[in-house]
Amino acid sequence: MMMMVTIVKSLSLINYGDALTKSILFFEGQRSGKLPPSQRMTWRKDSALHDGCDILMNMVGGYYDAGDNVKFNFPMAYTTTMLAWSVVEFGELMGPDLQHALEAIRWGTDYFLKATKRPNIVVAQVGDPISDHDCWERPEDMDTSRTTYYLSATRPGSEVSAEIAAALAASSIAFRNINRGYSRILLARAKRVFDFANYHRGSYNNAIGSGACPFYCDINGYIDELIWGAAWLYKASNNQYYMNFVKSNIEYIQSNEFGWDSKHAGINVLVSHWMMNDASNQSPFISNADNLICSLLPNSPTKSVTYSKGGLLFKAGPSNLQHVTALSFLLVVYGHYMEANNKIVNCGNVVAKPCDLINLAKSQVDYVLGNNPLEMSYMVGYGQKYPQKIHHRGSTLPSLDVHPKHMGCRDGDKYFQSSTPNINVLIGAIVGGPANDDSFQDSRYNVSQSEPTTYINAPFVGVLAYFKKY
């Protein structure tokens, strides 16, 4: 199959193993709470050590999702699910990075065990986003409101709860051969949280209001998260109840979207793995996954994405690399499944083989790591040229080692407004990425292009592990 023309430089310069190591290291820069002695990103220090005290729960830990200091549990749970899926599929290819990937997962799952400790209570978020976003402040100095937003039977939030259930179930598989006791704890909690999400249905948009919106509003509805959670619980437990739930709700899976808000395409790819053994291959999950592939291939007659002149996939909306990393992950995983089952995909007159999916994913990975018109890596600290002025509080401001005195809400403004590079290098952070004309504005003011997020990095971990090996 003919692939798109891209601006090519020597691909021998791309080191997938180095990128993998750094993509995982990034998560240490996003940690909240009491940092362990093994902390490698040493300019980060302990922060938010009293989270949850307003509701008498210990909510210390977890991740800051992006360049701010709020713990948004909806995208954090998706991040944890994707880290776990990366290990489930490609952990054996990670070498010494596997241990660090498991540590990154556990930093999330330990927090979610706290968030779901009380029956029929699920913590959905910690930190008031309005007051947080009004300050440019180190997480170590936070004096903004640390409101704990939680869900209950009368104030449900099925999308957050079900995504947490998915994260716990997927992580139980990742830890199964490493720590069986911990794996069992995760699976048991996943079942309980899924039941809460399913039996007390409703959107967290309504339950916590301005805490979620407009920052991480659930635009897509919560049914896809319920199906996603059930699919992961089936994979973790082999309990037919969860597969029956997935199959009975197939009519709700109608789009090719995949990310922190929409799980449709991910469900189809995940479930297709169990359906491919059927000789007839008539499962709607397989046909839906095939449709996803046909929507992405550059020369498919049903392509629904665009590509820049330099070869980067684009979908509508900000922070485009979140789509690139998530869809690249699905391309690699589905290509892997297809190869194991001698499967092809027919897109009209175009026939796609597993290698075509892998090659498309590789073109996206290589673009992100520097094979692009600007010859810029969009992973901080990787390569010779990468974003220097990312939209990230901790990276922008001097660390406690350099400036031990408290910095207040507006004390960081001069660093934000500075034209000099960030003081601390947030190694491994993948930013929102270039515009669709392949241009990039290295500016803290350009949030869409210059802000990193955990959910951009998480799917890339598995993709990099695959290309490190193959």
Automatic annotation (TrEMBL):
Alphabetic keyword roster: Carbohydrate metabolism, Cellulose degradation, Glycosidase, Hydrolase, Polysaccharide degradation
Active-site positions on this chain: 391
Root EC class: hydrolase
InterPro entries from the UniProt entry: 6-hairpin_glycosidase_sf (IPR008928), 6hp_glycosidase-like_sf (IPR012341), Glyco_hydro_9 (IPR001701), Glyco_hydro_9_His_AS (IPR018221)
Gene Ontology MF annotations: cellulase activity
Domain Glycoside hydrolase family: 16-464
GO biological process terms on file: cellulose catabolic process
Enzyme Commission (EC) number: 3.2.1.4
Catalytic activity line of the entry: Endohydrolysis of (1->4)-beta-D-glucosidic linkages in cellulose, lichenin and cereal beta-D-glucans
Keyword GTP-binding: no
One family name in Pfam for this protein: Glyco_hydro_9
Family: Belongs to the glycosyl hydrolase 9 (cellulase E) family.
UniProt protein name: Endoglucanase
